[in-house]
Amino acid sequence: MRLLPAETGHGLALRGLSGGFGPRERNDDFPELAQSAFGLDFANPVSVSAGFDKNAVAIAGVKRLGGGFVEVGGVTPRPQSGNPRPRLFRLAADDAAINRMGFNNDGADAVCARIREHRSNTGTLPLGVNLAANADSSDPAADFIHLVTTFAPACDYLTIDVSCPNTANGQVFLEPRALEDLLTRLNAARDATGARPAMVAKLAPDVTDTHLEELIGIITAADIDAITLCNTTTERPESLGSPNAGERGGLSGAPLFETANEMLRKVYAQTGGDVPLIGVGGIMSGRDAYTKIRAGACLVQVYTGLVYQGPGLIQQIKRDLAGLLQQDGFASLSEAVGSEHRT
Question: Percentage helix, strand, coil, to 5, in the chain?
Fold first, then answer.
């Protein structure tokens, strides 16, 4: 797969999973990894992050990888072609990738129809949808309201993605007052549907500590159910050695690991462990996932790691987590969440 252009390989992976190829793992094979968070039951804490299956074309195949939940998207109200190709780049020497995809997707109606069809035909794991405004929208808040209204009856949680560096409207709600107003309106829109999916906010790593603290204060005041930390970064560590290191876009993979972990630790400390956190960024092994869990994440998501470790990575993470919990004397995953803050 890595001999092909990155986006071509991505597309083939989705087609393979949607066609029934790939692993066929259980989701509940390590009972000690089960837990409840923001009103949902998770057989294990591992999933593929948003951006992998943007159009909900491979939900069943992604579930068979063995993860404990599924998140599709990002999806915008109207179909969107995204940025010009090439827009996805491997940094193999760094176990990393850079993307400037630009939320290319089939639009809310098509994605919601696929979710409804899947859920009517098969048993479900917790399923979330990552939401984003159209790049050319003159009213991105209205886009989010439309998306919440569309998807609230169809899924278990909604991720409000205010952290994408690759579109014109990707980060407009990182301004605190704009975020405060948006979350108030989205809570009202969700309540008006009569459905109660959990609401998750996804943040970017490229904010100062003061800015982050203010954003977290707004998110917690709005009773948002969980926080995903974090999206890709526009920073470029000096350690990068790949020829593609200078490409524009969001950097993911191993170079993001420590930055994302520090952000996770700060938010866990600020919230006192009272808000469930989803840890994303640089997970290449079970030990990496365990580091995020001990830093405060109750759930973790992988993406770039799959490029370099293959589709068996999720099962390997689960196996490693079970062993690490036993090694450290934890009877369950929940006992390990945030444990580094208690030592």
Answer: 40, 15, 40
By C-alpha distance, which of 217, 226, 228 is closest to 275?
A: 226
pTM over 0.90: yes
Q: Quick one: average pLDDT of 305-328? A: 97
Reduced to 3 states, what is the DSSP secondary structure of residue 199? strand
Tell me what the mean pLDDT of segment 50-78 comes to. 98
Q: Rg of the chain over CA atoms, in angstroms? A: 18
Burial 184-212 (b: 16+ CB within 10 A, else e): eebeebbeeeebebbbbbbbbbbbeeeeb
Q: How far apart are CA 234 and CA 256, in angstroms?
A: 10
Please give the sequence-ordered ranges of beta strands (E in DSSP) within the chain, or none if there are none.
35-37, 40-42, 46-48, 70-75, 88-91, 96-99, 127-131, 157-161, 198-203, 226-229, 250-253, 277-280, 299-302
How far, in Å, CA of 286 to CA of 311, rounded? 14
Give the other-Cβ count within 10 Å of 247's Cβ.
Answer: 18
Q: Distance between CA 242 and CA 246 in Å, rounded?
A: 9
Cα–Cα–Cα angle for 32, 48, 248, nearest 5°? 140
CA proximity to 203, closest of 237, 228, 234: 228
Closest CA to 149 of 184, 182, 108, 110: 108
- The strand ranges marked E within 213-294 are 226-229, 250-253, 277-280
Q: How many Å apart are CA 85 and CA 167, to the nearest integer? A: 14
In terms of Cβ atoms closer than 10 Å to its own Cβ (0-12, 13-18, 19+), residue 319 is: middle
Tokens in use for 63?
């579930």
Say how far residue 292 (Cα) sits from the centre of its chain.
14
Is the pLDDT assigned to residue 155 strictly greater than 80? yes
Q: Would the CA dihedral through 167, 169, 174, 180 be positive or negative?
A: negative
